[in-house]
C-alpha cells in the first residue's frame, strides 16, 4: 500500500533544474534512504517533500491526501536538520514541547509526552538546560526527540549524523534503527554515507543529477545494480571495472577476452543481444590472489592494512589499477607479481552505454 | 617587576583620561557651589547648596525632568517597536529591497539641526507644511504642530532621526538568524507570527538591549532639535534638562545654576542607566 507517493516531481531553481521528474512510492513504516553524490538533489527532494521548497511540477500525496500545495506546517511531517536547528532561547523541555504547545495540547498531556520521549532518549537529566549547554550527541537526541514527540506521519532526516564523531555516529545509527523498530513510523533519511544507507534502509534510493538512478533494498543494489553509476557508487572500495577486448559466443558459454586470458561466462546470464565490447565489473571482495592458475596477472603497487583485512592495489598489464581484498596478515610485498583469480559468478557486464547486461546466477 | 612596567606604560593614558574627566567635573562641581553670574562679575562667593536649590525650585525644573523622561521613553519605544517591525518586514527578499533599505537608513546621515529644520518647515508648518496640506485636502483644520503639540513634535523628529539606527542594528541581527531554526519551527506547525514571537524576538533581545543603551546616552541630551524647532516652548512644554541648563547658562548668564543643573543631569543619567541596565542588561547574558 502506497503511503507517500511522489509523481513526476520537478524543481527548477532560477537557472538550475534540480529535480528532473522524480517518481517514488513509499509504503507505511518503511525506512527509505536517499543517497547520491554531492549536489545530486537529495536535500532538495527532502525539502520539497517537507514543503520547505515549492515544487515546480508534479505532485506529492501523503496518506491519500494531495499535499503538493499544503504549507509545511500543515503536512504533519517532522524533520531533523543537519545543524539540529534547536531553538537556542528555549530549554530542552521547551524545545521538545514547542510543537505541542502551538497545537494547544493540554499541559498534562504535554508533560506526559515530554517525559516519555525524554526517558526513551536519555534526556531526563538535561530538560532544564539550554541547547548551548549540550554536547553534539545530546543536541542530536533533542532534535530527534523534538520530531518524535509530535508523532508525525513521516520523519525526514537530512544528514543528521554528519556532524558527529565516528564513534558517536555508529551509536546514534543504532539508536535510530532501534527507534524505527519501536515506532514503526515511515522515515526518509538523506545521507552520503554508504554504511548508514546500507545498514538503516529498507530501501535505498540512488539519485544522480536530479533523477532516480535505481531503487532497491541495499542487497539488491549491491548485487544487481542496473547501471555503472550504481555499481560504482555502492560498495567500498569501489567496484573494479576492466574493459574486455572481445566477447564471443560458443554454444552456451560466452568467452570474454580479458587482457589475453579467456574467461568463460554462462550465456544464459546475458540479457539482450551480444554487444561488440563489454566492460566487466568485479568487486574487490570477489577476487583473490592465487599461486597458479589465475585469470589475470598484476604487480602490487601498494597494500593498505586495515587490521581486519587488507586491500592490495595492483597494476594490470594494461596499466590499469585494480583493488583486491586480501586477508589481514598478508605477506604481500610492493612490486611483487601475483596471479589473480576472479569469482566468475560475481561478474557484472556493462555495455558501451554503461547499462548492466548481465543477470545474477540465481536468475539465470 | 613586569607588573610595574605595564603599569608605568599604561600610566600616561590613564592619567590623561583621568585629567580629561576630572578637570571638567571638578570645575563643574566648583562652579556649582559658588555664585557665578556673568552679569555680576567678581562676586564669586561660596554659596553652598544655593545653586542647587535655585535649579530645583526653578519653575522649569519639574517640566524639564518629566519632558526628558517622556522624550527618552517615547523615542525608545517608538524606535524599538517600529524598528523591529520594519526590519522583520524588509528581511524577506522582495523587489527593490536594496533601495528600500538605503531609504530607511538615510535619515541617520542627516544632521539633527537639518532634521529639525526639515520637519519644522516642510512637514509641520501650519501654512505650507505637508501635514497641513494633507489635513486640508481631507477637509480638516491644519494643525500647528510646534505650538499645539510641541513635545510630540520633538518626539517625532527625534524618532525619525534614530529609527534608522535601530533598523540598521536589527536588520544586521536578523541576517544572522538561523534559517534552519525557522524551518524547524515551520515544520513544528508555527505560523509566521509564532516564528516572529518565539524565535525572532528572543533572537533580537541582545540587539534591542544594545539599541536601548546607546540611544539612552544620546537621547538624554537631545538639544539641537529643540533649539531649532520649538525653542523649548511654548512655556516649558518642550524644555528638557539639556535645554534648561543651556537656558540658565546662556540666556540668564548664570553659570553657577547651570553647573548645578549639569550635575543633576549626571545624576539623572546614572539613575536611568542603572534602571535600564537592570531591565535590559539581563538579556545581555542570554
Ligand atoms: N537555492 C538554490 N538556488 C539555486 N540552486 C540551488 C539552490 N539550492 C540548491 N541548488 C542546486 O541544486 C542542486 C541540488 O542541491 P542539494 O542541496 O539538493 O544537493 P544534495 O544532494 O543535498 O548535496 P549534498 O550531499 O552536498 O548535501 C545543487 O546543484 C545545487 O547547486
Ligand atoms: Mg544536502
Automatic annotation (TrEMBL), chain A:
InterPro entries: AAA+_ATPase, ABC_transporter-like_ATP-bd, ABC_transporter-like_CS, ABC_transpr_MalK-like, ABC_transpr_MalK/UgpC-like, Mo/tungstate-bd_C_term_dom, NA-bd_OB-fold, P-loop_NTPase
One matching Pfam family: ABC_tran
Name under which the protein is recorded: Sn-glycerol-3-phosphate ABC transporter ATP-binding protein UgpC
Gene that produces this protein: ugpC
GO molecular function ontology, one term from the record: ATP hydrolysis activity
Stretches assigned to the ABC transporter domain: 4-234
Coiled-coil region: none
Domain of life: Bacteria
Keyword annotations: ATP-binding, Nucleotide-binding, Sugar transport, Transport
GO cellular component, one term: ATP-binding cassette (ABC) transporter complex, substrate-binding subunit-containing
Gene3D superfamilies, sorted: 2.40.50.100, Nucleic acid-binding proteins, P-loop containing nucleotide triphosphate hydrolases
UniProtKB/TrEMBL annotation, chain B:
Subcellular location: Cell membrane
Record has Membrane as a keyword: yes
Keywords attached to this entry: Cell membrane, Membrane, Transmembrane, Transmembrane helix, Transport
Keyword hit for DNA repair: no
GO biological process: transmembrane transport
GO cellular component annotations of the record: plasma membrane
Transmembrane segments: 9-31, 69-90, 102-119, 151-174, 207-230, 250-277
Cross-referenced PROSITE patterns: ABC_TM1 (PS50928)
One protein family per Pfam: BPD_transp_1
Membrane topology listed for this record: Multi-pass membrane protein
ABC transmembrane type-1 domain ranges (all copies): 65-276
UniProt record similarity statement: Belongs to the binding-protein-dependent transport system permease family.
The protein's name in its UniProt record: Sorbitol ABC transporter membrane protein /mannitol ABC transporter membrane protein
Originating species: Marinomonas foliarum
Amino acid at each position: 500500500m502506497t503511503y507517500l507517493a511522489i509523481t513526476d516531481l520537478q524543481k527548477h531553481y532560477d537557472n538550475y533544474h534540480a529535480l528532473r521528474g522524480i517518481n517514488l512510492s513509499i509504503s507505511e513504516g518503511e525506512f527509505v534512504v536517499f543517497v547520491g553524490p554531492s549536489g545530486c538533489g537529495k536535500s532538495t527532494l527532502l525539502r520539497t517533500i517537507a514543503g520547505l521548497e515549492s515544487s515546480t511540477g508534479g505532485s506529492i500525496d501523503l496518506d491519500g491526501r494531495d499535499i503538493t500545495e499544503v504549507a509545511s506546517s500543515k503536512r504533519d511531517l517532522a524533520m531533523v536538520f543537519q545543524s539540529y536547528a534547536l531553538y537556542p532561547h528555549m530549554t530542552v523541555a521547551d524545545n521538545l514541547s514547542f510543537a505541542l504547545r502551538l497545537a494547544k495540547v493540554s499541559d498534562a498531556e504535554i508533560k506526559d509526552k515530554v517525559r516519555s520521549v525524554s526517558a526513551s532518549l536519555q534526556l531526563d537529566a538535561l530538560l532544564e538546560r539550554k541547547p548551548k549547554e549540550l554536547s553534539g550527541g545530546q543536541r542530536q537526541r533533542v532534535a530527534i526527540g523534538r520530531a518524535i514527540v509530535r508523532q508525525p506521519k513521516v520523519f525526514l532526516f537530512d544528514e543528521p549524523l554528519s556532524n558527529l564523531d565516528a564513534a558517536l555516529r555508529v551509536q546514534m545509527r543504532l539508536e535510530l534503527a532501534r527507534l524505527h523498530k519501536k515506532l514503526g513510523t515511515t522515515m526518509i533519511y538523506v545521507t552520503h554515507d554508504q554504511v548508514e544507507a546500507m545498514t538503516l534502509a529498507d530501501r535505498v534510493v540512488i539519485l544522480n543529477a536530479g533523477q532516480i538512478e535505481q531503487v532497491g533494498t541495499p542487497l539488491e543494489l549491491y548485487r544487481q545494480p542496473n547501471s555503472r553509476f550504481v555499481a560504482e557508487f555502492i560498495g567500498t572500495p569501489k567496484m573494479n571495472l576492466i574493459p574486455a577486448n572481445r566477447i564471443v559466443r560458443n554454444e552456451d558459454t560466452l568467452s570474454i577476452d580479458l587482457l589475453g586470458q579467456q574467461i568463460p561466462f554462462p550465456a544464459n546470464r546475458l540479457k539482450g543481444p551480444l554487444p561488440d565490447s563489454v566492460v566487466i565489473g568485479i568487486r574487490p571482495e570477489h577476487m583473490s590472489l592465487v599461486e597458479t592458475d589465475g585469470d589475470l596477472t598484476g604487480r602490487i603497487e601498494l597494500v593498505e592494512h586495515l587490521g581486519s583485512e587488507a586491500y592490495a592495489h595492483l597494476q594490470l598489464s594494461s596499466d590499469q589499477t585494480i583493488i583486491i581484498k586480501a586477508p589481514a596478515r598478508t605477506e604481500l610485498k610492493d612490486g611483487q607479481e601475483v596471479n589473480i583469480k576472479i569469482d566468475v559468478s560475481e561478474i557484472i557486464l556493462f555495455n558501451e552505454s554503461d547499462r548492466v547486461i548481465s543477470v545474477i546466477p540465481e536468475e539465470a | 617587576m613586569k607588573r610595574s612596567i605595564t603599569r608605568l606604560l599604561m600610566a600616561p593614558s590613564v592619567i590623561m583620561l583621568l585629567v580629561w574627566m576630572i578637570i571638567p567635573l571638578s570645575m563643574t562641581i566648583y562652579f556649582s557651589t559658588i555664585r557665578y553670574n556673568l552679569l555680576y562679575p567678581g562676586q564669586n562667593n561660596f554659596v553652598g547648596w544655593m545653586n542647587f536649590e535655585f535649579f530645583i525650585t526653578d519653575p522649569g525644573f519639574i517640566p524639564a525632568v518629566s519632558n526628558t523622561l517622556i522624550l527618552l521613553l517615547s523615542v525608545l519605544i517608538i524606535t524599538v517597536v517600529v524598528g523591529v517591525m520594519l526590519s522583520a518586514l524588509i528581511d524577506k527578499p522582495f523587489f527593490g529591497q536594496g533601495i528600500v533599505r538605503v531609504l530607511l537608513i538615510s535619515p541617520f546621515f542627516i544632521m539633527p539641526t537639518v532634521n529639525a529644520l526639515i520637519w519644522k518647515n516642510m512637514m509641520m508648518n501650519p501654512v505650507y507644511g505637508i501635514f497641513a496640506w494633507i489635513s486640508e485636502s481631507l477637509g480638516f483644520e491644519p494643525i500647528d504642530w510646534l505650538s499645539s503639540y510641541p513635545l510630540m513634535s520633538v518626539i517625532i523628529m527625534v524618532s525619525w532621526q534614530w529609527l534608522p539606527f535601530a533598523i540598521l542594528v536589527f536588520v544586521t541581527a536578523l541576517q544572522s538568524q538561523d534559517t534552519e531554526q525557522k524551518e524547524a519551527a515551520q515544520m513544528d506547525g508555527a505560523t509566521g507570527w509564532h516564528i516572529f514571537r518565539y524565535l525572532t524576538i528572543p533572537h533580537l533581545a541582545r540587539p534591542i538591549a544594545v539599541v536601548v543603551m546607546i540611544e539612552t546616552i544620546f537621547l538624554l541630551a537631545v538639544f539641537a532639535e529643540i533649539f531649532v524647532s520649538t525653542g523649548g516652548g511654548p512655556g516649558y512644554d518642550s524644555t528638557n534638562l539639556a535645554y534648561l541648563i543651556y537656558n540658565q547658562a546662556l540666556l540668564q548668564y548664570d553659570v553657577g545654576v547651570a553647573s548645578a543643573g549639569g550635575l543633576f543631569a549626571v545624576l539623572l543619567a546614572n539613575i536611568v542607566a542603572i534602571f535600564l541596565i537592570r531591565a535590559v542588561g539581563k538579556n545581555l547574558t542570554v
